[in-house]
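Thread: heme C complex, take 2
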Amino acid sequence: MRTVKLGVLAALCLTAPLAIGACSKDDGGSGEAPADAPASAPKVTDADKAAALAALPAPYNTGDLSNGQSKFAFCRSCHTITEGGPDMTGPNLYGVFGRKAGSKADYKYSEAVKNAGFTWDAEHLDKWLSSPREFLPGTKMTFAGIHDAKDRIDLIAYLKVETGYKPAP
Ligand code: HEC
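Output below.
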């Protein structure tokens, strides 16, 4: 009797391994993949990110990416940073470095940002993030600012690494 039961179980495991949790230790995943990673995104490894960080101009090359990522929590209710990501309250920020302020197609900016007349780089972003409404009065970005200079450096380094910034050769 016992052998028969085991035989049946083994047969089920061979024929329908995915349907029977007990057959496989690692099925069902363990939630390792980030939930918001688009399936088609190219795989960027931590080593790629470390290399991109090291290639940034000082002081951003010493930025702390994990602190930058945690500071991005201030932004993510209004901004996406992935390539082709949607505009939300604020515009998608992929490719923002080297982009003229207020120039992303299909996003409706305030006059203040649309007419700012500069191109986003780390220096402008640092002033903007310290106090958007002091830097560009009339902006509709209702964000008080990040007052700690090191937090801004870490966040800017994180954004550079995540938004497709390429250092000049
Ligand atoms: C409450 C929503 C909100 C939050 C939070 C927010 N933003 Fe914004 N952001 C906006 C809006 C709205 C605009 C458009 C501003 C305008 O047109 O005046 C904007 C514009 C920008 C721009 C200019 C983009 C361009 O194409 O010129 C940058 C850069 C930016 N935000 C970065 C950030 C970062 C980094 C953070 C987090 C520290 C952040 N924002 C937090 C709403 C937000």
